[in-house]
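User: I'm writing a tutorial on reading structure tokens. Could you give me a worked example: one chain, its sequence, then its tokens, then a sentence or two explaining what the tokens reveal?
Assistant: Sure. Here is the example chain.
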Amino acid sequence: MATNGTTFSTNRLKIFFQSKRAGFNAQLVSHLTDFIDATKKTLDCAIYDLRQTNVLAALARVAKSGKKLRIAYHYAQKSTKQALTNFKLLSHATGVNPTGSHLMHNKFLVRDGKSVWTGSANISQGALELQDNNCLVVSSADLAKQYPVEML
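And here are its predicted structure tokens:
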């Protein structure tokens, strides 16, 4: 199913294409907050740049509900740490400090060990609303198991 060139969907896969430049508004913020809000038990996140307020609010709802929330972020991202602090999520977060000059540049969420949100977009207003990015939702427990849990 395609919608204005922004979405491709099959039974276990959804792909969203975002580009303000090209006139594609995939409504990534809405889709991502829906993904987060559908968490039943656990949500594991590895996010390099996490500053989008609606997404942070959705993560806070998961935390408040008593569901298990784990967030890994790049330790040097001061704005992400501040956003996590502002939304009372820092106790659920771990700053990842890769060796050398490498970045922890991941952008994925694993929901309930069954579904994965990933793609090129950071979780910032610019990345989710303005820049050229793509995001995927894959419903697959096998794939969800492949994401590294040691960083969380």
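What the tokens reveal: The chain has five helices and eight strands. The helical segments are 28-37, 53-64, 78-86, 125-130, 141-146.
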